[in-house]
Structure formats: C-alpha cells, structure tokens
Sequence to fold (105 residues):
Amino acid sequence: MSGILTATQLAQVRGDVREQFWGAKGAITTHRKYYEYAAAGSTEITRVESKREITIDAIAQFFTHIVDSKPCNMAFDACDSTLTAILGRMAVERQTRVAWSDLGV
Fold:
C-alpha cells in the first residue's frame, strides 16, 4: 500500500484536501465530503458521498470526552502518525519502497 496527501504543497483551495491510497486491489481517494474507489485495472470510479461533514463527529467525540471526564490518550495515534510521516519521508529520499522494519524502532 502506498499513499499521498494532496494539496499540502500546492496552492490551497478551501476544502480540497484529500488523501489517496494505492494497493494491489485498487486505489481509494478520501475527502471530507466523499470517497472514491477504483479497482485495479479498471477505469470506472465509484464515488460515495459522505452523509455529513466529518468534522462534526470529531468535535462531538472531543466534547463527549470532556463532559464525561474521560480523557482520550492520543499518544499511540500520534506515534503511528509521526512514524508514518517519517516512513514516507524515507521513501521519498531513498526513492524506493520502505517498510516499518526500516525504521529501526
């Protein structure tokens, strides 16, 4: 599986941030308002619209943790995110695929 975060180094267009992931079975593009899927070897793209803006769910969950006095430990998610970013950077610098084992952690 490989991925790219588009619109991070290009001219910013409000709401045009999306992620693209490629794998052996096809590719998927995720966005705040939809996701698109294309099977490997196919030119047909299936688009599914989101039921609502996803930020609403994130904010609701954030406030629920506060109101219920149940803090959410995001350390593991933050670690995964940081290591994934480092892995991506290594792949770009080496111009080849890299694996988790290449991180040496």
